[in-house]
Design brief:
Helix content is 7%, strand content 49%. The chain is mainly beta and 628 residues long. The protein folds into 5 domains: 130 residues, no CATH class; 103 residues, no CATH class; 115 residues, Immunoglobulin-like; 108 residues; 96 residues, Immunoglobulin-like. The strands form 11 sheets. Strands 9, 12, 13, 14, 16 and 17 form a 6-stranded mixed β-sheet that branches. Strand 13 and strand 14 form a beta hairpin. It is elongated, with a radius of gyration of 47 Å. The N and C termini lie far apart (142 Å).
Amino acid sequence: MIRKVKELILIVLAFSISAGFSDEPELVLPLAGEISVEMFPTPGVPGGDVFQLAVARLMVTFPFPVEINWGKLKQAPNGRFCVEVEGYRLDGITPQVVTTYSQSVELGMFEPGDYEAALKSVGEILGKDEFFVNGGGNIDLVNGLPSRVEIDIVQLPTRGLYPTFAANIQMTFDQYVDHVDWGDVSRKENLVESEMTAWIDPSVRILTPMIVEEQIALGMFFPGDYHYQLNSLKEVISRANISVAGPQRDFSPPQITVRGALVDRVSDEPLEFSVEFFDDAELVFDGVETQELSVLNRKGEVVELERTSLNFTADMSVGAIATYRMNPPGGSWDYGDRGRYRILLNRPQLIRDLYGNSLVDPFIGYLSVEIEPEDPKPAHNTELILRIDEITDRWKARARIFVPEDLAVRDDWAVDWGRVIPRGPSFFLRPRIVGAGSNEDIGLFPPSDTTGGGVWIEHSYDLGSISGGNWLICLNSNLGHFAKEQLIMSDLDPMGEPQDPFDFWNDWVDRETELENDHHRFWEYCVGTDPADSSDDHDGEPRPELIEGDDGEKHFGIRCRMAMSVVDARLRFEGSSDMITWIELGPEAIEEVERVIVEDGIEEFVVCLVSDINASQIRYLRVVAERW
């Protein structure tokens, strides 16, 4: 018995010594192993090249726990893939329990084709799996339902008496949707239905939910309450309600807007401009199609216009857009054509809506030729010097004009310097060389050299206490003297308290001045004239107004009068926040709200700012009148 124990001890010691001096761990053969390849479609491939990600799932079983070593992925020349695994005996006492190990290995991206992957250990194949990548297509498409549906009922632009609606549908899918088939909209009493079928491509993996949007036209609805539902795969996947109120009676005739009817430079090209026809209800388009347009110039001549295009639109802001062409009179546009031409309809009563509201007045707007003349070249040397008298705080204009030698040597002439004529933010100085004792203008004289026998004469004009704004001072004599200077004043206190619009006019009407004491004084800021035009003597009585708009807010406006016969004058409107910087106001900033004939051919019109008085930065308005 003792001998057997000694032999066992020797065997254990021998094994321990042998194990202690071994450099390599003992390799353990696996009991079994298997490999399966799983394909993962990659995002973005629908409709393009197909690539899929292959991932190998590896499992190997050993008779007891081992130290596992997963080898590197290898690819054979024939295109096959192989992963080798090894298990090594652990140190110490190991429980005799069958143990399975698993691992995932990415094989890479694969184009369409047939492939094979194998799992090996100690040179033996434990398992293999064949896999393939198809070329895509819809052969594997399946039906699917969205995880979420939102429906927004919107009203579409229309000219009809009753509204037209559409359903804006947004569907969320957790799988890739190849396409969606939409069925027709059906109605049964107050129920409106539409059908959709979504086709899912299960071979495409998506990383985030997929959104599909569609607008379904539901058509026109009479007053009442309706229910809309969206169906798919015999299920109701979403619902929405539609409520239509009764129609509102319209008493307003259609509106017409002329755009681009402006010539501002010399040219021999015809002018093309557009005319937009609009109504809150639906226009009767026959009246637009048969309409002819013409223009009336200041001489009473009528010129018919050529229509080059006519388009109808569903946009709620415009019902029809027509383009017209006018050839330049005499073959070219020049300063002689300068003026404002009235644009007239030949049959305004045909421009009507479905309620029967029609136009009465053939006048729809103006075609303007704004070719500005150059300042005249002085016939004789002229000087105009502006200065302020520091003691009286009044501005002076020192005028020096040269009298040519042929006139200077005579003694039968005199100078009538005249008075300062204010017109808007402008002063006109009109000295006259007259016959002595007759006060009749002396005819023109040829210019002479200032170094010759001519003579300089001068005069100081009192312009008054000018404050705030841009002023033009223009001198023009009957002998052809001409000079023009600009005076820019910016002495208003920018830190002062904001004033009510009415205070502005009252403050400036009563300022001290030696000019005529009448109530046209605010024309100095309310209306402007062309100082280069000696015939411009336009007068009027504009006044500010606060107008209540359709939005219920107050809008700053101005009321003006003008003789209807003055067709050769134009008006433009300017606004300012500080009476220093003035900006021209276009149709997007100011609009006409009233125009009537008051008496004796006097036309009165009212315009106001589009923005209400609280939202607008414009605190002062002026209308600039210019004679062509």
